Amino acid sequence: MSDQNKSHDHSEWSDMERKVKTLESLMIEKGYVDPAALDVIIETYQHKVGPKNGAAVVAKAWSDPAYLERLREDAGAAIAELGFSGRQGEHMKIIENDDQTHNMVVCTLCSCYPWSVLGLPPVWYKSAAYRSRAVIEPREVLKEFGVELEPEKKICVWDSTAEMRYLVIPQRPDGVGDWSEVELATLVTRDSMIGTGYALSPQEAQS
Amino acid sequence: MNGPHDMGGMQCYGAVEREENEPLFHADWEARALAITVASGFCGQWNIDISRHARETLPPEFYLTKSYYQIWIAGLEKLLQQYGMAMPDEIATGQVQTAGLNTAKRMNAENMPAALAKGAPVDRKIDGSPQFMQGETVHTRNLNPSGHCRLPRYARDKTGVILTVQGAHVFPDTNANEKGESPQWLYSVGFQSTELFGEAADERDMVMVDCWEPYLEKFR
Q1: Are A132 and B112 in contact (CB < 8 Å)?
Q2: Is the pTM of this model over 0.90?
Q3: What ipTM describes this predicted complex?
Q4: Searching chain A, which residue's CA lies closest to the CA of residue B187?
Q5: Cα–Cα distance between B162 and A94 in angstroms, integer?
Q6: Strand order, beta sheet including B206-212
């Protein structure tokens, strides 16, 4: 799976535009899909489901020990408390980063990703480079994300081979003592919930 | 099937390239491709394992050079033909030549939000109890089936430890081949990176793989 922004010339892209339009109109005419339902799907992933969902879960986990305990017990139910559920998030688990262990998530066989909390995956997550190397040289991959792991930490890489979907709970940054959940959520990046980044520090969030 | 999709452990694809402020879709057709792929799944003709297998059995040169949504569209075209929902000519021209498959269900716009929010859970109740226990050392079988399989090559014939029993889940190896859901116990198995990748790996690191019971055997 190539890097789709560079290696596809304009004619290949306009061919795809035409091909998908043709297929869509065929499927509508044959009665397989409702055109209004297609718009609902796009609208859902454009505006309702995305990494802000996961950030709210992490911020609450950082703030509310009872909620963190519920996430550990049954992540799907605890995430649903905040109104997030559904497709590609039916079987959720959290994995917690701490001073000893850094967790990161990959799908080496396709591109499984926890849509209900993170939305649709970025292109790099689906790329051959990430899928192939995350398991064999995770420390090198993390360096490419600008993450220099503390030498004492071990890495656990979670390969999403089944329908279990993993949400990384990044470590809570220092210096956020009295921050509200809403404020804390602004520090939680998408990459920090995949394990290819850290949560932002308050200084980084301001700059 | 040992195919190009089974990428774990390869080192030939270069650095991970990220795009700053990446848009959700890089063109309108990508959004439409997502929508028709998701919507067509609700027609009830195939399941998620069949659709994964359709993509991973595309010609390797296609799979390795095309973008994610190009692969989705190629997979969808394949499935529409395989399930008698569209003829090749119809796909090429968009002109309807035969009646639609009348067993295909259509998800309408009113019901779509609830359907997306519900998803499609794959946990099932099964008789009996799991063969392996948390903390037990297990060995993965050296499977090389010709059909769909979710045990990556890098994790075959390796020794690991059961971290958790995840419950019983639909078994992709049968479900992708129209041989039924045949639910099996699913385990999270932890492997030392050195067991998987040898001395070059960091001895502290681990890789966790979700494995169905038929992928595992007792450690001897």
Answers
A1: no
A2: yes
A3: 0.97
A4: A162
A5: 17
A6: A101-106, A154-159, B206-212, B184-192, B159-169, B137-140, B216-218
